[in-house]
Write a structure and sequence with these properties.
Layout (H helix, E strand, L loop, with lengths): L5 H13 L11 H12 L4 E8 L5 E7 L4 E7 L7 H15 L9 H4 E6 L4 H6 L20 H13 L3 E7 L5 E2 L8 E4 L11 H17 L7 E3 L9 H6 L4 E7 L9 H20 L7 H5 L4 E2 L3 E11 L7 E9 L7 E7 L5 E7 L4 E2 L10 H12 L2
Length: 386
C-alpha cells in the first residue's frame, strides 16, 4: 500500500492553520470546550443536540454533520482525564466545515451522517479523574448502566444504529509499540463482541479500516503505532457496541517524546479519523487483510518509564559500591516531581528521557514509590558539571 498522498499532507497543513488553539492542553474541561460547541451550534451545516446531562447536571451535547444512510458515531472522554481526542474531534469537524475535503466525494454529506459526542464525562473532566462523579468507571458500566452518562451512550447507540463507531481514549504514557519499540503514540483495537473473538463482517471491516488508518499514520509515525489485546470484556462499552453490529474502533492516544500535552496524538487522531471516513466511503479499506491488521505491533504495557538513568553508581561509604539502572516516573500526586519506580537491571524498558549515569554517584536510594526529586536534581547537577 502506498504512503499517504498529497491529500493528507494538505490536511495536516490545514490542521496547523485551523485547529482550535486554546484546546492545546493535557486536561480539558467542559468550560474549555463550551465556546467551541456554542460556535459550532450556530453553524447551519451542523445539527446541535443536547442529548442529556451528567450526574451533576452538565449538558452532554452531540454535533451531527451530513444526512446520509451510513451512520458514524464518535465519542470522547468517557474517562474524564482523557482529553486528547476531545480536541481532535472538534478540530476534525472544523476542517470538514471549512473546506470540502479532497479525499471525500462531492456528495459525501448525502452518503454519511457523522455524529460526534465530545466529553461524555464532564464531571470527571472537571475533577481530573477517570471516573464519573459517582466514582464509577463508565467504561465498565455497559452491563449495569448505573451512570446516567453510560445510559445515555447506550441510548444513542440504540437510536442512531451506527455502522461505524469510534471509541476514543487516552492511554498511560508507558506503552510501547512492540517490544523495544517507540512510545505508542496511537494504539488501535477492533474489540471482540464474544469471548471466542469471532470475526464477523462488521469486525472484519473494523480491522480493515484500522489497517488503512495505520498505513496513513505511518507516514508521520512509522514506529509508534500499537495494537491492543482483544480479550473480551463483557462490562466494556466498546465490546458491547461491537455486539450491536457496529464496526467498532478503539483509538487510544499515547505519549510522544517531548510532547507532554499530546498535541502530536491530537493531530494524528484527526488524520486517522479522516482516513477512516474516506476509506469507508471509497471502499478502499477492502484492499486490506486481517494480516495487515495483525502486522501492527502489540501495544506493550510498561515498555517505558519517564526517566531512565543507566549505570548509576550507588556508594554509601559503608558497603562496596555497585551500579544499577534507576527508573523514575512522574508523581501522580504532584503536578511536578518524580517517584522511584524501579532499581536494578532495566533491560527491556526504555526511558522517554534517557540519562547516562556512567561515572555519576549517589549515596543511598529512597524506597520504591518515594519522592526521587533530590536524586534527579543531583544527577542533573553532576551532568551539568561535565
Amino acid at each position: 500500500m502506498p504512503h499517504p498522498n498529497q491529500t493528507f499532507t494538505e490536511l495536516e497543513s490545514r490542521w496547523h492553520a485551523e485547529h482550535w488553539p486554546h484546546l492545546a492542553k493535557r486536561q480539558l474541561t467542559y468550560k474549555d470546550i463550551e465556546p467551541v460547541l456554542d460556535a459550532m451550534a450556530a453553524t447551519e451545516q451542523l445539527t446541535h443536540t443536547v442529548v442529556g446531562s451528567s450526574y451533576l447536571g452538565t449538558p452532554i451535547r452531540r454535533l451531527s454533520l451530513g444526512h446520509g444512510p451510513v451512520v458514524v458515531l464518535a465519542w470522547t472522554q468517557m474517562h474524564g482525564n482523557e482529553s486528547t481526542a476531545t480536541a481532535a474531534v472538534l478540530d476534525w469537524l472544523q476542517l470538514l466545515l471549512n473546506e470540502h475535503p479532497a479525499d471525500l466525494p462531492t456528495d459525501w454529506q448525502e452518503l454519511v451522517t457523522l455524529h460526534v459526542i465530545p466529553m461524555l464525562n464532564p464531571d470527571g473532566a472537571a475533577a481530573g479523574t477517570r471516573e464519573t462523579a459517582q466514582g464509577i468507571d463508565m467504561n465498565r458500566d455497559a452491563l449495569a448502566q448505573q451512570t446516567p452518562e453510560g445510559r445515555l451512550l447506550w441510548q444513542q447507540v440504540q437510536t442512531l444504529k451506527p455502522s461505524v463507531a469510534f471509541n476514543l481514549h487516552d492511554q498511560n504514557p508507558y506503552y510501547a509499540a512492540g517490544e523495544g519499540g517507540e512510545p505508542a503514540t496511537i494504539a488501535f483495537l477492533a474489540p471482540a463482541y464474544h469471548p471466542d473473538k469471532h470475526v464477523d463482517g462488521a469486525r472484519l471491516r473494523a480491522k480493515q479500516l484500522i489497517a488503512h488508518m495505520r498505513q496513513v499514520l505511518s507516514h508521520w509515525l512509522p514506529n509508534g503505532i500499537g495494537r491492543y489485546d482483544d480479550t473480551y470484556s463483557q462490562r466494556s462499552f466498546g465490546d458491547a457496541i461491537a455486539g450491536t453490529g457496529a464496526s467498532t474502533i478503539l483509538i487510544e492516544s499515547g505519549e510522544h517524546r517531548g510532547d507532554p500535552s499530546r498535541q502530536v496524538a491530537r493531530r494524528l487522531n484527526v488524520m486517522a479519523l479522516q482516513a477512516g471516513l474516506a476509506a469507508l466511503l471509497s471502499g478502499v479499506y477492502q484492499d486490506y487483510s486481517l494480516a495487515d491488521y495483525y502486522a501492527i505491533p502489540d501495544n506493550v504495557s510498561d515498555g517505558f518509564v519517564d526517566i531512565r538513568i543507566c549505570d548509576l553508581t550507588i556508594d554509601d561509604g559503608e558497603h562496596p559500591p555497585y551500579q544499577v539502572d534507576v527508573c523514575l516516573n512522574r508523581d501522580p500526586d504532584r503536578a511536578q516531581g518524580y517517584v522511584l519506580e524501579f532499581v536494578g537491571d532495566s533491560t527491556g524498558q526504555q526511558g522517554l528521557e534517557e540519562v547516562s549515569g556512567a561515572g555519576l554517584k549517589w549515596q543511598q536510594l529512597p524506597q520504591l514509590g518515594a519522592v526521587a526529586d533530590p536524586l534527579l536534581a543531583h544527577v542533573r547537577e553532576q551532568l551539568s558539571q561535565r
